[in-house]
Amino acid sequence: MKSITEKIRYILPAALLAVLLCCCTGKPKVDNSEIFNREVYKPEYASGFRILGCDGMKSIMIEVSDPWEGADSVRFSLLVVADGEDVPAGYEGQVLRGNAGRIVAMSSTNVAMLVALGKASDIAGVSGKRFISAPEVRARLDSIADVGYEGQVDYEALIACHPDIVLLYGVEGANSMEGKLKELGIPYMYVGDYLEESPLGKAEWIVALAAITSNVDEGKRVYRDIPARYNALRDSVAALGLAPVKVLMNAPYADSWLLPPAGSYGERLIADAGGEILTGGKKTSGVIPVTREETYAIAREADIWLNPGNVHCLAELERLAPGFASTRCVQRGGVFNNNLRSTPGGGNDYFESGVMHPDVILSDLTKILHPDRFHGELVYYHKLR
Predict the structure, then answer these.
(1) Smallest Cα–Cα separation from 165: which of 217, 99, 221?
(2) % of the chain surpassing 90 pLDDT
(3) Helix, strand, coil percent values for the chain (each to nearest 5)
(4) Residue 201 near residue 43, CB atoms below 8 Å
C-alpha cells in the first residue's frame, strides 16, 4: 500500500494540471443555443435563419445557418442587445447594441428589404450605387456611400459611414470583410436570402432584417400577406388543370447553356405558374449545363423562352444566340425577358425588389404562360420584339 506521502505526490500534479487547464482555456465554452433557447421566430419557408430569445431578457439572437454555397454545419450568430441589458456570459458571436440606424448593405436585395420595412433612410452605404433601383434610395444617392465590392472594399468610405452594422453575404466561403470588420469593431450579419430555393423563403428574410432595425413583429406584418397572395395565385393556376407550358430558360454562356435544376428558385416559379422547364432529359442536383446543339433541340420544342440574358430586343438576341431565330418560340413571339425595370447603370429591379415580390413575379409568369386566362400589364417582364 502506498504511503500518504506517495499519494500526495501523485494527486498534487494532477490538481495543478487541472488548474492550469482552466486558466489556459478560460470559461467553459457554451453553445449559444443553450443560452437562447426560446423560439421567437421560426420561418415557414426560409431555411437559413431563425430568431431565438432567452427567458427574462428582451434581447434576441439571430442565428444564420450555412450562409454561403457549400457551407456545412456553419452557424453564425448576431445578438441584438436590448437597452439596459448585458451580453450573457458565455455568448460567442457578433453583438449589436440596440436597433441599427445606419446600415451598409452589400447586396441590393437587402436594400429592397429595408425599403419594404420603411427603413430606406437608414441605408448609409451600398455596394455599387449605380445598380440600385429603389426610387427611395436613388433619390438620396448623394448621401449614401459606395463602399465597393468584396476584395475591393473602400474601408475609408465604409468607416466614414459610421455604420451600426454591415450586411454581408458569402459566395463560396466566409466573406473576406470579416477580419477587417472585427478589427474595426463594426458588427456584421450574414444574409443568405440568395441561397433559398423557395421564392417565399427568399422574401422571408425580411423578418431577420426587421429584427435588427425595429422588431420582429414589424417584419412579420410586412411579410404576412406575401405568402397569402402567392399561394392563392399558385392554387388558382393548378385548379385550371392545364398541361404544362414548355419553357426554354436563359441564354448561352461561353460554349454552354446553364439551365436551372428541379427544385431551384427559377424552376419553382415556372412550375407554380403552370410551366415546365425543358432540360433535354438531364437531371442533376445543381445547375444543368447543355451544349448549344442540345439547347437548339430543346428550343424547337419550347412554347416560351424566358430570361435570355441581358438583351432587350430580338435583334440583340440573334447576335447572342445565332440561329435560334427560326425556333418555334421566337417565330410565335414567345420570348420574354425579366429586365423591364433596368437602371441606366446596369441594375435590374427583378433581382432587387423582385425578391420581396415573388407574388408579382408569379403574376407576370401566369400572364406570359396563359395569356388567355390571366390578363394585365407585366411588371418585371416584357416581350422582346
Answers:
(1) 99
(2) 79
(3) 40, 20, 40
(4) yes
Query: How many CA within 13 A on the CB side of residue 116?
Result: 29
pLDDT score for 312: 97
Contact 74, 67 (CB under 8 A): yes
DSSP helix/strand/coil, 133: coil
Cell of 183: 478589427
H or E element that contains 20 = helix 4-25
pTM of the model: 0.90
Q: How far apart are CA 109 and CA 114, in angstroms?
A: 9
* Identity of the amino acid at 241: G
CA 125 from centroid of its chain's CA atoms: 18
Angstrom distance (rounded) from CA 65 to CA 79? 15
Fold for the domain defined by 230-383: Rossmann fold (3.40.50)
Listed by start position, the domains of the chain span: 32-223, 230-383
Q: How far apart are CA 274 and CA 279, in angstroms?
A: 16
Instruction: Evaluate whether 192 touches 347 at the Cβ level (below 8 Å).
Output: no
User: Alpha-carbon distance 140 to 345, whole Å?
Assistant: 16
| Strands, E assignment, the chain | 38-41, 49-53, 60-65, 75-81, 94-97, 103-105, 123-126, 145-146, 148-149, 152-153, 165-168, 188-190, 245-249, 252-253, 256-259, 275-277, 288-291, 304-306, 335-337, 382-383
What distance in Å separates the CA atoms of residue 236 and residue 206, rounded to the nearest whole number?
Answer: 26
Distance CA 119, CA 144 (A): 14
H or E segment and range at residue 181:
helix 178-184
76-89 tens-digit pLDDT? 999 999 999 999 99
Answer yes or no: same fold for 32-223 and 230-383: yes
Contact between 96 and 187 (Cβ < 8 Å): yes
Map grid coordinates 456584421 to a residue: 188
Count how many residues are written for the chain: 385
Grid cell, residue 76, equals 453564425
Indicate the SS3 state at residue 355: helix
Q: In degrees rounded to 5, what are phi and psi of residue 354?
A: -60, -30
32-223: CATH architecture: 3-Layer(aba) Sandwich (3.40)
| Beta carbons of 70 and 285 less than 8 angstroms apart | no
